[in-house]
Fold:
Amino acid sequence: DGQVRTSPLPANRLNAQGTTVILTTHYLEEAERLCKRVVILKQGTIATEGEIATLVSGAGAKNLEEFYLGV
Structure:
């Protein structure tokens, strides 16, 4: 639902207070906007994990989606 993805989530407030929030999504732009760290799964196993900025810059990618396509 597009409206849900563009609305502020209660999870944002919790995360700002220091609470860990686990978000599952297929929308990489959403993950990049809402998360500091990600775990990327491929075929049910962890392909990579870490801070988004570190993963993206380390791979020379422009964004999380470009990084993902290279994993």
Remarks:
- The mean pLDDT is 86.
- The beta strands are 37-42, 45-51.
